[in-house]
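Open question from group meeting: does this chain pack into something compact, or does most of it stay loose? Before anyone orders reagents, we agreed to write out a predicted structure and look at it together. Recording both the input and the output here so the notebook holds the full record.
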Amino acid sequence: MTGDFEIGARAKARCDLLGAPPYSEVEDQLTRRFLTPAHNAALERLTLWMTSAGMTVRRDAAGNLVGRYEGQAPDAPALMIGSHIDSVRNGGRYDGPLGIMLGIDVVEALRDASRRLPFAIEVIAFGDEEGSRFPASMSCSRAIAGTLDPDAVLDMRDADGVTLAQAFTAFGLDPQRITDARRKPSEVLAFLEAHIEQGPVLEAEGLALGVVTAIAAQKRLMVRITGMAGHAGTTPMALRKDPGPAAAECILALERLCQAGTDNLVGTVGRLTALPGAFNVIPGAVEFSMDIRAETSATRDAAVEAVTAEIHAIAARRGLSASVTLMQALSESPCDPGLTAMLEAAVGDLGLPPRRLPSGAGHDAMVMAALCPTAMLFIRCEGGISHNPAESVTEADCALAAQAMLHFIDKLERRERA
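Structure tokens returned:
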């Protein structure tokens, strides 16, 4: 039976199943990085579920999994529904996969009702959204949208020194054909992404669902402060060229700038490495990441410029050198107004107060906007917690999300038949 509540319950249960080995690289936690055996195991399981729901399934040249439910006419343009299957290290079970599972269940509900639409539905599991293995994110959706520059990504290395090109080859893919994943605008009608909110707003307001208006602009930087390695016990403090305190000062500068900012400006240092990394050695260099986001590119860029100037000033004052490398830049991405209104009405059809809100987190939908109109549905998560094993959703909220997606499809069908 695939009643509405059962659909939501099953989507959640499937996310839970994928939260442990072999779908995770690590025992007792969820870590599923792009192009790893855990990634492959997850795709194999998704293939079974997509096939059972009535889809034909393929892997594309970028490592995405695509399940297609045909429309009334062959080769009809598709409404794409999906999200990402990768995770951060020691992450939660619903960030990404829930949007895929809900898409599969929606298709199965249509199949069980013997419904064929004037458009196809494709459920997609993007392979890399988080950037948890290689230092750039959303490479798979960028390949589909046609915005990926292979020369800029194939030589990137993971923490073990493996290049993206080598990882593609080991996964059975040809890195030189990654751009073959690109889709034509005529092939895609729209993209719908359902995703946990990853924030506390919906829960604070007692709401199960929210409709996303826009996704924040972001930039990722890698900073390297270089000094002089030395003995921790024999080098006086006044004679050191220690990049460690300089890095700390730079991080505090980022915090100060963002606290004083507007447009929901935020900054995060999520990775920091002292080199060579020994107890008794003054570091010769410190490397750290900076993730800077705001509702507008102008505010984000002003913050990047300001913190970059402070980094160089801090290093110069301490007799050190500094480099700041841009790793990724994504502009703010407004969701399509027409589809957003349609999704808002679909939520209202359930008797829920429609709540519009922006997304501070980046999502594949912001990349897909270069290919087609996009819409995005948020699902309440407990405590607003995400990127954390404590990430949690309820079966009831998942069921409401599935119902809202079906109502959205109904409205899109009426529009296309008009």
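Observations to bring back to the group:
Residues 1-5 have pLDDT under 50 and may be disordered.
Residues 395-417 form the longest helix (23 residues).
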